[in-house]
Amino acid sequence: MADYLGIHILLELHECPADRLRLPGDSERILLAAAAAMGATIVESRFHAFSPHGVSGVVVIAESHLTVHTWPEYGYAAVDVFSCGQLDLEAGLAILREGFGAAQTEQQTFRRGRLPVTRGHR
Amino acid sequence: MADYLGIHILLELHECPADRLRLPGDSERILLAAAAAMGATIVESRFHAFSPHGVSGVVVIAESHLTVHTWPEYGYAAVDVFSCGQLDLEAGLAILREGFGAAQTEQQTFRRGRLPVTRGHR
């Protein structure tokens, strides 16, 4: 069986209340709660407001990262969860969906960093 | 035709020289050069070294973000380029491939934030 270094989830959060997508502090609180629920080790978080509206934020975790970009005018947030550790991703994803109040979500999961079996990496 | 808010590229860089993957300053220099080549507006960059080795880094751009996670022991770097602007992504990707010295690359491209046509968003 192929072995991979990380798992990357692209989470599309649609039909979110615009009020939850406007303030960097709100997005930061949600992503930090998700990281904590996953059992991640938080290294730092950086969140920015953009003009005229919208938030970009990243939480660097020892196991990789979480990011968010919001478009309040479309009720949409693009969230990424990239983990190279043994984390409880489902617990984090539930916090993200609930925190942003998404009425419609899409989720795609990718394995990152396939290790060549022939080289005997363990 | 469906309209989207952003484009997200997952770039797998395999068979990179380990020396290019060890130092946060090297990864930061490459990602900043890629962002500049794309024509992005750089907001901030944050790079960390991990024990025993490996780098995690993010460049926040006004148009979204670039991230990297490296595994020198496997000659592998996972790079993300997320853009919601009109950037020259190919110019940035060329810098990333060349900067990390990847002998083998894989690239997947995703559209993020599909706008419902029926709502007449423009």
UniProtKB/TrEMBL annotation, chains A, B:
GO biological process annotation, one example: spermidine biosynthetic process
Matching HAMAP family: AdoMetDC_1 (MF_00464)
CC cofactor note: Binds 1 pyruvoyl group covalently per subunit.
EC primary class: lyase
Catalyzed reactions: S-adenosyl-L-methionine + H(+) = S-adenosyl 3-(methylsulfanyl)propylamine + CO2
Pfam families associated with the record: AdoMet_dc (PF02675)
Names of required cofactors: pyruvate
Pathway where this protein functions: Amine and polyamine biosynthesis; S-adenosylmethioninamine biosynthesis; S-adenosylmethioninamine from S-adenosyl-L-methionine: step 1/1
Name assigned to this protein: S-adenosylmethionine decarboxylase proenzyme
Post-translational changes noted in the entry: Is synthesized initially as an inactive proenzyme. Formation of the active enzyme involves a self-maturation process in which the active site pyruvoyl group is generated from an internal serine residue via an autocatalytic post-translational modification. Two non-identical subunits are generated from the proenzyme in this reaction, and the pyruvate is formed at the N-terminus of the alpha chain, which is derived from the carboxyl end of the proenzyme.
Record site feature (Cleavage (non-hydrolytic)), residues: 63-64
Positions carrying Pyruvic acid (Ser): 64
PANTHER family tied to this protein: S-ADENOSYLMETHIONINE DECARBOXYLASE PROENZYME
Alphabetic keyword roster: Autocatalytic cleavage, Decarboxylase, Lyase, Polyamine biosynthesis, Pyruvate, S-adenosyl-L-methionine, Schiff base, Spermidine biosynthesis, Zymogen
NCBIfam families, per database record: SAM_DCase_Bsu (TIGR03330)
Similarity annotation: Belongs to the prokaryotic AdoMetDC family. Type 1 subfamily.
EC number: 4.1.1.50
Record note on quaternary structure: Heterotetramer of two alpha and two beta chains arranged as a dimer of alpha/beta heterodimers.
Annotated active site: 64 (schiff-base intermediate with substrate), 69 (proton acceptor), 84 (proton donor)
Gene: speH
Assigned GO CC terms: cytosol
Keyword S-adenosyl-L-methionine: yes
GO molecular function, one term: adenosylmethionine decarboxylase activity
Biological role: Catalyzes the decarboxylation of S-adenosylmethionine to S-adenosylmethioninamine (dcAdoMet), the propylamine donor required for the synthesis of the polyamines spermine and spermidine from the diamine putrescine.
